[in-house]
Amino acid sequence: MILTPEQKQEQKAKKQKQREKQNHINSIRRILISMGFERLINISGYNFTFEDRTSELDDVFVLENIVLLVEYTTEKKPGDHLLKKDHLYQRVNDNPKKFLEFLIDDFPTDSFNNYYYNNIKTKYPTLDMLQVGMLYCSRYDIENEHKNVVTSTVVFFDYNKVQYFKLLTKAIKKSAIFEFLNFLNIENKNFADNILNTSSKKAYKGYVLPESKSRFKSGYKIISFYIDAESLMRRSYVLRRESWREEKNIRLYQRMLESTKITNMRKYLYEEERVFVNNIIATISINDIELKTFRTDPNTKEQTEVSISIDKDGSFYPTSPHVEPIQIEIQDKYNIIGIIDGQHRVYAYHEGNDSYEDKIQFLRKQQNLLVTSIIYPEAESQNEKNRFEANLFLEINKNQKKLSSLLQQEIELIVSPFSTIAIGKDVLKRLNENGPLHNKLVNCSYDKNKISTASIVSYGLRPLIKLDENAVDSLFRIWSEPNKLKLKEKNCNDYKLRDSYIDFCVGKIRDLLLAFKQHLSDNNQWEPYNTTNKQGVLGVVLLNGIMNVLRLLIENNRVSSVEDYVNSLNGIESFRFKDYKSSQYRRMGGKIYNEFFSKEKDKE
After folding, report:
1. Most buried by CB count within 10 Å: which residue of 151, 265, 357, 464?
2. Residue ranges of the domains in the chain?
3. Count of CB atoms situated within 10 Å of the CB of 542
4. Are 564 and 517 in contact (CB under 8 A)?
5. Alpha-carbon distance 437 to 429, whole Å?
6. Rounded CA gap, 158 and 146, in Å?
7. Strand pairing of 201-209 and 221-228?
8. Cβ neighbours of residue 315 under 8 Å, at least 6 residues apart?
9. Any residues with CB less than 8 A from the CB of 468 and at least 6 apart, and which?
10. How far apart are CA 524 and CA 533, in angstroms?
11. CATH classification for the domain delimited by 24-193, as one of 1.20.58, 1.10.287, 1.10.10, 3.40.1350
12. Do 551 and 562 meet the contact criterion of CB atoms below 8 Å apart?
C-alpha cells in the first residue's frame, strides 16, 4: 500500500509521539530504580474498579514500606487527564489501607499480591505500616488552575523536577532517596526501619562558640559537632538553585553536585580511608535540636547534665564567655541541616554501585565529619538569614571555582534584594508564573524552547523599573505610593514596599502584554520562535521591544488600560517582527510606538 504524503507525515508524527512518551517513562523509571525502588511487572494497562471508579495504573514501585503509584502523560495540555486521575487519587487518599487490600486481593493480576507476601509482610506485618504515595509525571507544564482543583495529595513530578533528580541520582545514586522522600512529603519516622522504632533523636558531642569569640551578629551562635556521614546525609538539605524546592521566602542559590568531583572524592576515600579534614559549614533548625552542657559540683566533683535554653533573641542560659563542650541532640528528620559549604565532601559518602562502595559502605557509618553550624535566633527574619548565608557562601567560594554569572545574579538577589536587577528578576519571575507569558521564559537550565531572561532583565526591565522618580520613562515615576522614596535608601529593609512596587510593575507590563497577545494568538504567533514553531514571534527582541514601548507610553503620558491598548494595536499582526535582530529592540519599540500609539497615529 502506497501512503500519501499526508499519511506519511501522520505516521511520522505518531512514531515521534510514541518515542517521546517512552523516553519520558524510561527517564522516571531509571531515577526511581537508581534510588532503590523496585518496579512491579504485570501492573500497567489493566483496567480495574475501586470504590465504583474505573481506572488503571501506569506503574507501581516499592521500596521498603513505600508503595508508589506512578502516572505518566505526554499530553501537551494534561489538565483534563489529571482531573480524571484525581477521582482515583481521592479514593486512595480517603482509605489507603483499603486500596492496599484491593491491590493484594482483587487487582486483576497477582503482581502486588506476590510481592507483598514475599517481600513486605514479614518485615511490616500490618498494612498501617505502609505508606502510599502518588506521583503524577507530566512531560509538559500543568496550569496552576488545574493543579489547584486537585483535592488529593498527589505529588507533581514536573519535567524540571525530573531533570533535577536525574542529575542528583547520577551523582549520589541511592542516597538521593532522603531528598526524594522529602519531596514526596514522607517523613523519616515513617520510612523503613524508622517506623518500627520509637527513638527520634540522637546525641552528638560538640562545642558552642559565643559571639565574643566569633564576632558574628548578636544572637548568632556557632555550634561545632562531629556526626557520622550517613546520619548527616539523612538530615541534610542544600538550597540548590534548580531544585524542586519552592522558593517562597527562601532563596535558592547553590550549585548542582558535580558527578566527576564526587567520583574523585570517593576514590580518595577508598584509597586513603581517611576523613576529609576541613569542616562542613551549615545551618541547623533551632526547633529540631536540644543542647545540654555539664556543670561540676566544686565539692563533690560530680558532673550534672544541664539543659541549655535559648530565648527568641538567641541568648543561651546558662551562658559562658568561653568555648564550652556541649551535647547536641538532633531529631532524626529530613531537611533540618542546611549545608552552605561542603556538599561534595558530605555526599562523597553516598550509597553507590561503583567499585568504591565495598569500603565506603563502612566508612559512612564509622567516619565522623566536623560540622560548624550557625544557629539563628528565633526572632531573626528569613530575609536576613538568606542574606547572611549568601554572603557567607560568597566569602568561602571567592577563591574557589569561578561562579557563573547566572549564579552571581541569584546571589545578588539575596545579598542586594533592593537593587534594580534583583527587583527586575522578581518581576520577570512573576510574569512567568501566570498571564500572557506563563511558562514561556527559561526558569532553569532544563527548559527547552523557552525564552532566555538575562538580557530581558538587563536591557528591557532595568531601564523600565529604575528607582528614579525623575526619569521620564520609568514606572517608578508614575507609581503613586507616597513612601516610594524609601526604596532608594541605602539600608532599606521594607519588603512590603518592595513587593508593592513589584506588583505595580507586573500589573502595568502585563496589561500591555495582554493586548499584544490578544492580537497575536492566532497561528501560534504568541509562542517562542524555534525549529518546531517557525510562526512564533516571541523572543528576547520582541519582549524588550514591548518594554521600550511601555517606556515611551510613560514618557508621553499615554499609559492606559488593556482595552485601549487592544484598540491601538489593530493591525499589529502584520508587523514585520522578524526584521529586527539581536539588540534592535529599542528601534523595534520606537517603530511600534510611532505606528500604533503616537499622537500622529491618533490624527489619522
Report:
1. 464
2. 24-193, 204-402, 416-603
3. 25
4. no
5. 10
6. 14
7. antiparallel
8. 219, 377
9. 474, 476, 477
10. 7
11. 3.40.1350
12. no
Q: Write down the H helix ranges in 434-494.
A: 454-455, 462-465, 475-478
Q: Residue 284 — φ and ψ, nearest 5°? A: -140, 140
Radius of gyration of the chain from its Cα atoms, rounded to whole angstroms: 28
Cα distance between the two ends of the chain: 61
Q: Could you tell me the three cell numbers for 521?
A: 494568538
- The DSSP symbol for 525 reads -
User: How far apart (Å, rounded) are the C-alpha atoms in residues 395 and 507?
Assistant: 37
Q: What is the pLDDT of residue 599?
A: 61
Q: Is 92 helix (H, G, I), strand (E, B) or coil?
A: helix
Mean pLDDT of 260-271: 92
pLDDT digits (tens, 9 = 90+) for 325-376: 888 999 888 888 989 888 999 999 999 999 999 999 999 999 999 999 888 8
> Which value, to the nearest 10 degrees, does the dihedral of the CA atoms of residues 79, 83, 89, 94 take?
140
Instruction: Give me the mean pLDDT over the 296-305 stretch.
Output: 77
Please give the Cα distance from 575 to 598 (Å, whole number): 16
DSSP state of 379: T
DSSP state of 371: E
131: cell is: 505508606
Length of the chain: 604
Of residues 454, 479, 474, the one with CA closest to residue 463: 474
Distance of CA 123 to the CA centre of its chain: 35
| Surface-to-core class of residue 468, CB atoms within 10 Å of its CB (0-12 exposed, 13-18 middle, 19+ buried) | middle
User: What would the 3-class secondary structure string for 420-444 be?
Assistant: HHHHHHHHHHHHHHCCCCCCCECCC
Residue 27: Cβ within 10 Å count: 17
Write phi, then psi, for 201 (nearest 5 degrees).
-150, 165
Per DSSP bridges, beta strands 221-228 and 368-375 are antiparallel
For residue 162, give the C-alpha cell.
525530573
Q: Residue 386, SS3?
A: helix
pTM above 0.85, yes or no: no
Contact between residue 169 and residue 28 where contact means Cβ atoms under 8 Å apart: no
At 198, is the pLDDT very low, low, confident or very high (cuts 50, 70, 90)?
Answer: low
With beta carbons less than 8 A apart as the criterion, state whether 162 and 111 touch.
Answer: no
> Which residues are 421's β-sheet partners?
none
Task: Return left, alpha or beta for 69; rule: phi > 0 is left, psi -120 to 50 is alpha, else beta.
Answer: beta
Question: What is the average pLDDT score of the chain?
Answer: 86
CA-closest candidate to residue 517, choices 536, 541, 494, 490: 536
Reported confidence tier of residue 121, pLDDT bands at 50, 70, 90: very high
The helix/strand/coil state of 125 is: coil
What is the DSSP code (8-state) at residue 354? S
**Exposure b/e, 220-259, CB count within 10 A at least 16 = b:** bbbbbbbbbbbbbbbbbbbbbbbbbbeeeebbbbbbbbee
What residues pair up with 221 in beta bridges, in sequence order? Answer: 375
In order of 75, 140, 246, the CA distances from 21 in angstroms are: 9, 11, 27
